[in-house]
Design goal:
about 250 residues; binds beta-D-glucopyranose; six-stranded mixed sheet; about 35% helix; five-stranded mixed sheet; Nucleotidyltransferase, domain 5
């Protein structure tokens, strides 16, 4: 199936048509920078521009950085608070003039990695973390997906994502070693709770995994995401395909 995958992030919204049988982009991605916080209506307009760019007439999948139940957004830690309570499925479907399926961004990224990337053919317990503006998280067992919000676990009195996201490393000017050690403590806590056999680290920073994986102590097999930053687009498309079939 050909699906337009759209990934909404803290600093940009990007999309590309995806072949869901291979996980490949069918055209170069289109990216719109969002240096200022966009309101839900403005974000939907930006998504509409992505649809128009590709003259898209097919199904659309969207990944959003917050809790999504059905088509409704329940949290928005790093984007405009007006997203909270917003019926995003309706808003984005109208803006794109197409039916839209929406899910959490990390859940989408996880789908892509489990189907085509670092977790393919793995049926045991897997945890994927995306390290970017925030921390996204999703669990898999025997291929079933469970979106979760582990970036908001408390660490020294604050949300873990304030201390160990990729943005936190840059903001605080931490060395790879300092950051890697913090990450190790965080991963250790998650390990004690979930005992994953495989941990996949995604987000742009996973391209530099050789700088910080050495500081992370874990019982699980620790691997970088294979899609790096593109998993969100591919996974959003996979989500829309799944929704159509269910
Ligand atoms: C949000 C998650 C999201 C993650 C990565 C967190 O702040 O609560 O839903 O997956 O950031 O974007």
């Amino acid at each position: 199936m050909r699906v337009l995958g759209i990934d909404i992030g803290g600093s940009a919204i990007k999309g590309a048509p995806v072949d869901t049988a291979t996980g490949r982009h069918l055209a170069g991605r289109f990216r719109i920078e969002t240096p200022l916080q966009l309101s839900p209506v403005e974000m939907a307009e930006a998504a509409g521009m992505i649809g128009a760019h590709f003259r898209w007439r097919g199904p659309v999948g969207i990944g959003f950085p917050g809790v999504v139940h059905g088509g409704t957004i329940l949290t928005s830690a790093n984007l405009d608070k007006k997203f909270i309570g917003c019926d995003a499925q309706e808003l984005f479907s109208k803006a794109l003039g197409r039916p839209v399926a929406i899910t959490n961004d990390a859940a989408a990224a996880g789908l892509a990695e489990m189907k085509f990337g670092a977790g393919r053919r793995f049926a045991g317990k897997a945890l994927m973390l995306t390290l970017g503006t925030g921390i996204g998280s999703v669990l898999f067992f025997r291929g079933a997906l469970f979106p979760c919000e582990l970036g908001h676990l408390q660490m020294d009195g604050r949300d873990a994502e304030r201390r160990v996201s990729a943005a936190a490393r840059r903001r605080k000017g931490l060395t790879w070693k300092q950051w890697g050690r913090r990450l190790s403590l965080y991963v250790g806590t998650l390990e004690d709770l979930f005992w994953p056999e495989l941990i996949i680290i995604g987000g742009g920073v996973s391209a530099k995994h050789d700088r910080f994986f050495k500081y992370i102590t874990t019982r699980a097999r620790l691997v970088p995401a294979e899609f790096l930053n593109e998993a969100g687009i591919v996974g959003a498309a996979l989500w829309a395909e799944q929704e159509r079939r269910s």
